[in-house]
Design brief:
The complex is a heterodimer of chains A (about 1550) and B (about 475). Chain A has 48 helices and 53 strands. With about 1550 residues, chain A is α/β, with parallel strands linked by helices. In chain A, the strands form 13 sheets. Chain A has a ten-stranded mixed sheet with strand order 42-43-44-45-47-49-50-51-53-52. In chain A, strands 7-2-8-1-13-12-14 form a seven-stranded antiparallel sheet, covered by helices on one side. A seven-stranded parallel sheet of chain A has the order 31-40-39-37-36-33-32. Chain B is an alpha/beta fold. Classes of the chains: A alpha/beta (about 1550), B alpha/beta (about 475).
């Protein structure tokens, strides 16, 4: 169903881009005792989760909140009685919560429609009740959208059995009534919405601040209102357009997270229409369509699908397992029956994939589940009086400690269920065991599951002769570069190849060369609102399993053993596999019949003929499906001189959508046999538009032909295997960038945006794909195809022996156009080196001139100059404008010390800003140089690796930039290989020389927008003076994300264009992800202005700015500030070698090789000239445009015009109307950055701590502080640490100088960036992100003395503890959540158990785990040591051994013998830790365990110490292989440890 | 691609020369190429730049990184194909090109450039040796006829491209043998004529018809071409030499360089010398003009047995090293020393000739004076240095001061093509069309005097323009 309430699309705003995520919670009485208490508690939870929500420009306008209850019979009965309505017994009546339109006519129509449907479906209308509301608490902006809220009462009809059949009937009524109104042209019809309609549950919700739910609906506070459960939700939406319907809970659930595969899920649901029948719904099924419509949020859509499954007979847990399965493929720990259950269901439905914590209830059962990767938090506790309280965080309700019998968390993929009818908690294992054994799934699988690999071998076709091959390659658009830079490297290494610097070629629509259709699509990626996944280190959640062929009836729960299914392990088929598919009919009981359809058509029909050929193909496809063929192979093998092939992507998408529209899609599998697909991006697109498997026959033929030239020598089979592996890994990476973990749900999910395709063309063949700027249609696509075909089979001498050069990666004169050419680079360098502005003008003229070749979108803009230009001296002075400029984020590590400091010194001299990049900063740069220059970078970046992000680093910044994504590789992490981590870089990054460093794809403390708000709050606490910036990459929807960022209180947002540079990134990402900055910037500005948020936040644009004209266009499109990466670097000497990733930069820019660094030619003066010239140009243009000040210019896109006279054959269709739309800003609404954010720092606990710690801060005198704490006290200790660091640097104070004892539940980020000398000792429990960025402090947490729990069986700290910790120590008396000590680089920690992914990406420090760990321990762990007490010997199965060795402790013998003082743990605890990490394991362990015992009183610690002899051998040491090698090397050459001399002095550069 | 660290590990090694005292005894090529392994090692120095400056620095846009890599990997045959895809005659450029590509090489910025020219030469030499160079005969004939006037590098490149596009091409050459400047302008010790002949054989197989001793505008009326051909490409070079009009110019023993060089080449080829012999044997030779032609005069004079050779240049002595920060990747002004210079000659800069002094109508000495150059209003102004006059002994003076423009008398006058301000044929590099319908111009005749590699580029581009004009579209590369 469709419940659009936000405004319709206009300009670049599109409601489809809205995201939300939020706080969820429930309270339930296990014994189903109804009372008012759960409702009261539910409302209290909402109030205490406020910080997880957001408010927009209007402080009273929240993003929505709500509460779901059991039908409060007592209250309703009494209220109805007063109205003269006599309610039948419980269960025999239903109550509907109805939002009605304010328009009286439409309202009357709505009520009538509902009443009519109730009667038509044989139920009895009892009457209506007006729900009392108090809208004084509503925001100004919300009031106009407030509906009239009434409840309707319906008696069960005589024909309808009670219970589930009645619920089903109500569902059918609701759907029909909804469609009846929404399908009519009535004023305000979209206000008609039914939040709930059930005999079991009732939902109160709205665009209300969470704390005001009980104010708006006063009856919620009525003590007669009783329920055994309350499910609550608070929404944090990126936008604030009031939408009452999108507030949660929905009818069955509330959801914190994001369904990344939504588009595909919607399509696949649509596609099922024809083959779906239901025993329970019968004829009613047809009345439900459309089941799901566009415009609803992902959560709403999910709820729709869940409803259908429930109505179709699935139980609530069963349906949840179907929609959000655990990671079952290749999981050795999973019970076989459960795996069979999942594998069986995988063919029924693709997962609804994405980070999710979902709490659900049908009124009789209530529960919650977490996505397979555990990317949302959910904690719960059980009380001695049979209550379960679940929430996004601990401490939302004050429950006396002594009443708590269990504190735990929801684990990845796990489910918590409370069955109210049985009055008990059903744990994950039991639910799943029950469901998994309900049917003989394994038997069904064995009977029906066919694995392609098990089919008899076939013979694949042989590769042709070289000439034929060449012609075919040319016809399919192969270039020399494809062979050299893609196919050959993939065949050799099995990896998607890497390059560096950015993309500077035109978007496909502006290219004068015939581009493949793939080039018009950009991959979308996750930023902020959902996390990307690491497909390598977290491979366990990823799956490439694909099913080919018809899908079973989704609602058929019984006849499991009848439908055959064909499974492939990965969707890339070699020629033999394809023949297996083609001939499957003869092997599998004729269950499958495969038809091969040719995508070719006669060349005589020309470009004009393609439309018809496509229609014929679609019709033919539908025909053969109707004839009973259930696998379709679309093939372009028949291409020859006389036959053109329809582009495979076009044919695939067209057939896929045609079959969806005709409802036949799920009856057939779609396989593409194509010569086109060769690079990763192309496979992804085919998959995204419906290909269940792909055979890249021409790529394979090409590999066969290249075998003789490959070094090292390999067989054809090896080369094929490498290639397939590279493509597979590449697909995984692209999927994971969007946070999608299974191919099945990626398939058809259309995670792409179109750049330069006509919307009519897109809507027809790529239905549902978004695009912004219009462009070419079918005719032009056909012409491009024809041009390639002519090249292949024509007489051009150039192509007789050769492929086209390509030239997309490396400049070639016959290849693609580049912005950076030998000419532009030398002009710029000569100009800045000689200081000659005239020469710079020549450079910018050449760079801007696009008369011959269009290179970027802005090239098509023209200025509308003022009729009377100003004189230059009337324009704002250069010194003011230059403050708006910054250099891009480039880390010391990716570029050399010389290059990095040259940029910093230049920017500081100018009064502009440089950026540290993500590698930390050498503290030596905080002090000015003797020359008076400063090499300190004003902008300090905080990226996912958190390298060198100490409290000291943070307080030495003017701006703190959170890097969410990078233009050249959005959604990806980075990797600095060990050989690049020299001693110096290791020191700055607080890591070990020679050990590789991995930046994870996501920030592990940002899985959603409310997490980002938390990190912003953390950083602001450490350094209240710094502006907080968030760096995003341009893609469709980035404006919406930016609005969320503004609401998360960022001061600054950067929008990076796809052109941005990189030190190393897969070419797939550099070329195919992200969109031009013009689009992202315009969308951001428009969305911010519309939301009245623009004034609060500065907008910076970067990624491909090159001239003063670019700056002015950026300003006109809405930017306040501007970043320059490549341009600044070229001024400093970069020659665009694109060899950064090889460390061989011949001009000493992007290298750490000391010899090459000597060649660095740059001077600060060169960089200064560059920026001075730029500003001069800007001012000249401002004068011509008539703008006195820069602010006046911002957002004035009306001063830009499209170049009408476009001669370019492809660019003719471009339309920038939406891009250049000027958003309406009422008077008083800012259109540029001119206001301050309210960070809410006044109330933080640290103000009190700082006041009490003054003696320590000022005179190093020890202080002791005691204070209570609760969950709303967040980021405790950070502001205090900022004070310490500002004064004492990273060295801090002597240990324990400031000792803070706290009691209660700590809010998130407890002890973040805690400085050395500060101890936080907490009696109670803490939430997520404890010790984030720990900078030397000590954190001790143990349960409240009132608690009677066995601490080691309960959770004590939440997820992502010690993320990016640098130094310090932690002792946790209990179990931690997922990702304990992730990216720890130096902290010591003792804990009594961990969740999944413990010690992930760790690079240093020591972790002791005195209990069980979760799965995937030590993934990506390159340094540090972990000691795990593995009493049952199962640890090995849960560890990720890719980078570590598991071994016994190395000095166990000695410690066994020398132990005398059994009880004097305090003395042991006070001993110095041995420094040599290659030795003294047992001694180190002993000291840490002793400290743990002393600080926390830990029972497990005492047990270990007491039973040292027995337990010591049960410890497993986790030792990273690289780390050991590096330590050994350092011990062999101790001199390497010393800092290289003379390098500090060279800071003067 | 290539060897990523090759440039750090391998130092530049160029081809060698046979010793001076040996090579000056003959007029044959005296280059000693690197062995194959050495060439491949040198190719490994190529860094496969993201922006290969050499590729643009080279006027024919040789795809240098690609063939460097292929050579490094030993895939010579494919390297040859890539090389031929941009350059019709790499055996010429591989020998006599001053190699602007090497100036542009990224390694030249702060190191020694890759030996691009040597590698190019090695590729094509191997190609010939292995028999890989074969005619590329058009599969379809267009039936169109094109006349190419002039058989220098521009004319030949133009003719070859047009023939490959299927046109009937006739090349007119005023001299008795085909090759133009290649054959008669460049001394044999730098470019042996055998190299030209085998290329001509290839072109003949591709259908090009050569007509020597056919001086258009003299032997054949220029208008006749217009009647007989669908298009005419003028590629006759810039043959009007710059003269030195000072007192004594009329004396005997003063010659234009090209007369001197041409005669020697004819002599080597065993041809007849019609005019009086110009020989440097036992003479004091003064070469006026410091360019490549001057240098060729030096080498030829030495081989003829001159008593002394002095080369004068009016411009100041250029710096030994350029300021790379401001010049790279452009062609820098710097002191260049050729193999001929090494064979024994005096060079002097910033001197201008005041007069020739003679006896019995023959030159015996030359009076020169020192000059100074000063910058004024963005232009270099020359001023004589007071008291800077001196006299040099000279019995043979060779004027090598370049060429002003093509010979305008005869063909050009007759055809009536418009000239540009410098006296060259006016035509753009977009379409190479002259002011007269169906007449095109390329090479020095259009561009003014330049390098062989520029002539090849113009010939190729002109061929594409002609093809496009004739057929409406063209598949020839530019």
């Amino acid at each position: 169903m469709s419940i659009t309430c936000p405004p319709p699309a206009s300009g670049l705003y599109d409601p489809r881009n809205e995201h939300d995520s939020c706080g969820i919670g429930f309270v339930v009485d296990i014994k189903n005792r109804k009372s008012h208490q759960p409702i009261r508690q539910g409302l209290e939870i909402l109030a205490n989760l406020s910080h997880r929500g957001a408010v927009g420009a209007d402080p009273l306008a929240g993003d929505g909140a709500g509460i779901l209850l059991q039908v409060p019979d007592g209250f309703l009965r009494a209220e109805c009685a007063e109205l003269g309505i006599a309610l039948p017994p419980v269960g025999d009546y239903a109550v509907g919560m109805i939002f009605l339109p304010r328009d009286t006519h439409t309202r009357a129509q709505s009520e009538a429609a509902l009443q009519r449907t109730i009667a038509a479906e044989g139920q009895v209308l009892l009457g209506w009740r007006d729900v009392q509301t108090d809208n004084s608490c509503l925001g100004r902006s919300v009031r106009p959208s407030e509906p009239v809220i009434r409840q309707v009462f319906v008696k069960r009809g005589a024909q309808c059995p009670s219970g589930d059949p009645f619920e089903r009937k109500l569902f059918v009524i609701r759907k029909q009534a909804h469609h009846a109104i929404w399908n009519r042209e009535l004023i305000g019809r979209h206000q008609f919405y039914i939040p709930s309609f059930s005999a079991r549950t009732l939902v109160y919700k709205g665009m209300i601040l969470a704390r005001n739910i009980g104010v708006y609906y006063p009856e919620l506070r009525d003590p007669r209102m009783e329920s055994a459960l309350a499910l609550v939700h608070q929404r944090f939406s990126t936008n604030t357009f009031p939408s009452w319907s999108l507030a949660q809970p929905f009818r069955y659930l509330c959801h914190n997270g994001e369904i990344n595969t939504l588009r595909g899920n919607i399509n696949w649901m649509l596609a099922r229409r024809h083959n779906m029948t239901s025993a329970t719904l019968g004829a009613d099924l047809d009345k439900l369509w459309p089941l799901i419509g566009d415009g609803a949020s992902d959560s709403a859509t999910f709820d729709n699908a869940l409803e259908l499954l429930l109505a179709g007979g699935y139980s609530l847990p069963h349906a949840m397992m179907l929609m959000v399965p655990e990671a079952w493929a290749d999981n050795p720990l999973m019970d076989a029956r459960r795996r069979a259950f999942y594998e069986y269901h995988a063919a029924l439905m693709e997962p609804w994939d994405g980070p999710a914590a979902i709490a659900f209830t049908d009124g009789r059962r209530i529960g919650a589940t977490l996505d397979r990767n555990g990317l949302r938090p959910a904690r719960y506790l059980v009380t001695s009086d049979d209550q379960v309280i679940l929430s996004s965080e601990m401490g939302v309700l004050s429950v006396p400690e002594e009443k708590i019998v269990k504190k735990w968390r929801l684990q990845p993929g796990k489910m918590l269920l409370i069955d109210l009818e049985q009055g008990r908690i059903v744990d994950d294992g039991e639910i799943k065991e029950q469901l998994a054994s309900a049917h003989p799934y394994q038997f069904w699988l064995d009977a029906t599951q066919i694995r392609l690999a098990d089919l008899p071998p076939e013979v694949g076709p042989m590769a042709p002769d070289i000439q034929t091959l060449l012609r075919r390659q040319q016809a399919f658009g192969y270039t020399q570069e494809d062979l050299r830079a893609f196919l050959t490297p993939m065949a050799i290494s099995g990896e998607d190849p890497i390059s560096s610097m950015g993309r500077d070629i035109p978007p496909a629509v502006l290219s004068s060369r015939p581009k493949l259709l793939y080039d018009y699509f950009k991959q979308k990626f996750a930023q902020v609102t959902n996390p990307p996944i690491d497909p390598i280190r977290e491979e366990l959640v990823m799956s490439l399993v694909s099913f080919i062929g018809p899908r079973p009836n989704l609602l058929d729960l019984e006849s499991g053993g009848t439908h055959k299914r064909l499974e492939v392990k990965r969707p890339i088929l070699d020629n033999v596999d394809l023949e297996r598919v083609r001939r499957i009919e003869y092997h599998v009981d004729r269950a499958f019949r495969t038809a091969t359809l040719s995508m070719g058509y006669s060349v005589e029909r020309g470009a004009e003929g393609m439309a018809r050929a496509l229609e014929d193909l679609c019709r033919e496809a539908a025909d053969v499906v109707r004839q009973g063929y259930n696998i379709l192979i679309l093939s372009d093998r028949a291409l020859d001189a006389d036959h053109i092939a329809i582009p495979a992507l076009l044919a695939t998408a067209a057939v896929h959508h045609h079959l969806i529209r005709t409802g036949l899609r799920t009856e057939v599998g779609l396989v593409v046999e194509t010569g086109e697909a060769k690079r990763v991006h192309e496979f992804c697109l085919l998959a995204g538009y419906g290909a269940e498997a792909i055979n890249p026959w021409l790529a394979l033929d090409t590999l066969s032909a290249s075998i003789p030239h490959l070094t090292p020598r390999m067989s054809e089979a090896e080369a094929n295997e490498h290639y397939t592996k590279a493509i597979s890994k590449g697909i995984l990476k692209v999927m994971s960038k969007m946070g999608i973990s299974t191919y099945q749900s990626y398939c058809g999910a259309q995670i792409f945006e179109a750049v330069g395709l006509a919307s009519e063309f897109v809507e027809r063949y790529f239905t549902g794909t978004q695009g912004v700027i219009e462009g070419i249609g079918l005719m032009e696509v056909a012409q491009e195809t024809l041009r390639r075909h002519r090249q292949a089979y024509g007489n051009a001498p150039l192509y007789r022996q050769h492929l086209d050069v390509g030239g997309e990666l490396a400049f070639r004169l016959r290849g693609e156009d580049h912005a950076w050419t030998p000419e532009t680079i030398s002009l710029l360098q000569h100009a800045v080196r000689s200081g000659d502005y005239e020469q710079f003008k020549v450079y910018s003229r050449v760079m801007n001139d696009q008369s011959d070749h269009l290179r970027n979108l802005r090239g098509l803009f023209e200025f509308r100059f003022a009729s009377e230009p100003l004189s230059l001296d009337e324009v704002e002075p250069a010194a003011d404008i230059v403050r708006r400029l910054a250099t891009g984020a480039m880390s010391f590590g990716s570029i050399s010390w010389e290059a990095h400091t040259t940029l910093a010194i230049a920017m500081n001299r100018l009064g502009a800003k440089s950026n540290t990049g993500e590698g930390g900063e050498d503290p030596v740069r905080y002090t000015p140089l003797d020359s008076g220059d400063s090499a300190r970078s004003a902008i300090k970046q905080v990226a996912s690796g958190r390298f060198g992000v100490t409290a000291e680093y943070l307080v030495n910044a003017d701006t703190l930039q959170i890097k969410m994504a990078q233009g050249a590789k959005p959604g990806e992490g980075g990797q600095l290989p060990g050989h690049k981590v020299n001693d110096w870089i290791a020191r700055v990054r607080h890591s070990t020389p020679g050990v590789g460093l991995i930046s994870p794809p996501p920030h592990h403390d940002i899985y959603s927008i409310e997490d980002l708000a938390q990190l912003i709050f953390d950083l602001k606490n450490v350094n209240p003076k710094a502006a907080i910036s968030v760096k995003l990459v341009s893609e469709i929807g980035v404006g919406t994300v930016a609005a969320g960022v503004a609401k998360a209180h960022a001061d600054h947002v950067t929008i990076s264009g796809e052109d941005g540079g990189t030190g190393a990134s897969p070419i797939t990402s550099i070329q195919n992800a992200g969109s031009p900055w013009e689009i992202g910037l315009a969308e951001t500005h428009q969305t911010l202005v519309r939301n009245h948020l623009r004034g609060r936040i500065a907008v910076q644009v970067d990624g491909g700015l090159r001239t003063g004209r670019d700056v002015v266009i950026g300003a006109l499109l809405g930017a306040d500030e501007f970043g320059f990466g490549t341009g600044a670097l070229i001024s400093a000497g970069c020659v665009m070698m694109r060899k950064c990733h090889l460390n061989t930069c011949p001009v000493g820019v992007a290298t750490q090789d000391p010899e090459l660094r000597k060649r660095f030619p740059g001077q600060p003066a060169h960089v200064i000239n560059f920026f001075t010239f730029l500003v001069q140009e800007v001012r000249e243009l401002m004068a011509q445009l008539g703008f006195r000040t820069f602010d006046q210019m911002i957002g004035r896109s009306d001063r830009l015009d499209m170049r009408r006279a476009i001669h370019h054959w492809k660019a003719r269709g471009l339309d920038f109307t939406r891009l250049l739309a000027v958003p309406l800003a009422p008077p008083g609404v800012a259109t540029y950055h001119c206001e301050e954010q309210q960070h809410g720092l006044d109330a933080v606990l640290d103000h009190r701590l700082i006041a009490k710690a003054l003696p320590a801060l000022e005179a190093r005198q020890p202080v002791r502080i005691e204070t209570p704490i609760r969950n709303t006290d967040r980021t405790t200790g950070a502001m205090l640490s900022g004070k310490v660091a500002r004064r004492y640097g990273h060295a801090g104070l002597p240990a324990d100088t400031i000792h803070v004892s706290l009691a209660g539940t700590a809010g998130q980020s407890f002890g973040a960036f805690l400085a050395r000398g500060v101890t936080l000792e907490l009696a109670g429990v803490a939430n997520d992100y404890v010790g984030k960025g720990l900078s030397g402090g000590r954190i001790v947490i143990y349960p409240s003395p009132d608690s009677s729990l066995r601490a080691e069986d309960n959770i004590i700290v939440g997820n992502t503890v010690l993320y990016g910790a640098i130094a310090g120590e932690c002792y946790f008396r209990g179990v931690a959540g997922e990702r304990f000590a992730v990216r720890n680089s130096g902290a010591l920690a003792v804990v009594e158990g961990t969740g999944d992914h413990g010690c992930e990406y760790m690079t240093g420090g020591v972790v002791v785990v005195l209990g069980p760990t979760g799965r995937n321990f030590s993934a990506g762990m390159s340094g540090g040591i972990a000691y795990v007490l593995d009493e049952d010997g199962t640890f090995e199965r849960r560890a990720n051994k890719a980078m570590v060795a598991l071994e016994p402790l190395n000095d166990a013998e000695e410690t066994l013998n020398v132990r005398v003082l059994r009880d004097d743990w305090r003395a042991v605890a006070e001993a110095e830790l041995p420094e040599d990490n290659l030795r003294h394991d047992a001694r180190r362990l002993e000291i840490l365990v002793a400290r743990h015992a002393v600080y926390t009183g830990s029972e497990p610690a005492k047990r270990v110490l007491e039973h040292w002899r027995e337990l010591l051998p049960k410890f497993v040491k986790v030792m990273p292989l690289d780390y050991r090698r590096a330590l050994q090397q350092m011990q062999q050459q101790p001199e390497v440890r010393a800092a290289p001399q003379g390098e500090k002095a060279s800071a003067a550069a | 691609m290539g060897k990523p660290t090759g440039f750090l590990e391998i130092t530049r090694h160029e081809h060698g020369y046979t010793p001076v005292d040996e090579r000056v005894k003959h007029f044959r090529d005296f280059v000693v190429p690197l062995p194959e392994a050495g060439v491949r090692e040198q190719a490994a120095r190529c860094m496969d730049c993201g922006i290969p400056y050499c590729h643009r620095g080279c006027p024919v846009h040789n795809i240098i990184p690609d063939w460097n890599d292929l050579v490094y990997r030993g895939n010579w045959r494919e390297a040859l194909e890539v090389l031929h895809s941009t350059n019709n005659f790499p055996e010429f450029t591989g020998r006599i090109c001053p190699a602007p590509c090497e100036a542009s090489c990224t390694l030249n910025f702060n190191d020694q450039p890759v030996t691009i020219k040597d590698i190019e030469c090695a590729i094509i030499d191997k190609g010939w040796a292995e028999g890989w160079v074969t005619p590329q005969i058009a599969t379809h004939r267009t039936g169109k006829r094109v006349a190419v006037v002039g058989s220098g590098p521009a004319g030949l490149a133009c003719a070859q491209q047009l023939a490959r596009a299927g046109h009937r091409v006739v090349v007119f050459e005023k001299n008795d043998r085909i090759g133009g400047l290649l054959r008669y302008g460049i001394p044999d010790f730098k470019l042996e004529t055998l190299l030209i002949d085998r290329r001509l054989a290839q072109m003949q197989a591709e259908g090009v018809e050569f007509r020597p001793n056919s001086h258009v505008g003299v032997d054949i009326p220029a208008r006749q071409l217009l009647a007989e051909f669908d298009a005419v490409a003028l590629a006759g070079g810039a043959e009007a030499p710059r003269d030195l009009t000072v007192p004594g110019r009329e004396l005997g023993g003063i010659y234009f360089a090209m007369d001197f060089l041409t005669q020697q080449n004819r002599r080597v080829a065993g041809g007849k010398i019609a005019a009086a012999e110009i020989l440097a044997t036992d003479k004091d030779v003064v070469v006026i003009g410091g360019g490549d032609t001057g240098s060729d005069c030096v080498g030829t004079s030495i081989r003829q047995g001159a008593r002394s050779v002095t080369q004068l240049e009016i411009l100041p002595k250029p710096p030994e090293k350029e300021n790379k920060l401001l010049t790279w990747p452009d062609w820098p002004l710097k002191l260049r020393t050729s193999s001929s210079h090494e064979e024994g000659c005096d060079r002097d800069w910033a001197v201008t000739t005041k007069q020739f002094i003679g006896r019995e109508d023959r030159v015996t000495a030359i009076e020169v004076t020192r000059v100074e150059w000063q910058q004024a209003n963005g232009r270099q102004i020359m001023a004589e240095v007071p008291g800077g006059a001196l006299e040099l002994k000279a019995d043979l003076v060779l004027l090598a001061m370049g060429f002003v423009h093509p010979v305008q008398e005869g063909m050009l006058r007759e055809l009536g093509v418009a000239l540009d301000g410098r006296g060259n044929i006016a035509a753009s590099t977009d379409d190479y069309q002259t002011s007269v319908n169906k007449i095109f111009a390329a090479g020095d005749m259009r561009r003014g005097q330049s390098l062989v590699v520029w002539a090849i580029r113009e010939g190729r581009q002109c061929a594409r323009a002609v093809d496009e004009w004739l057929m409406g579209h063209s598949e020839l590369p530019r």
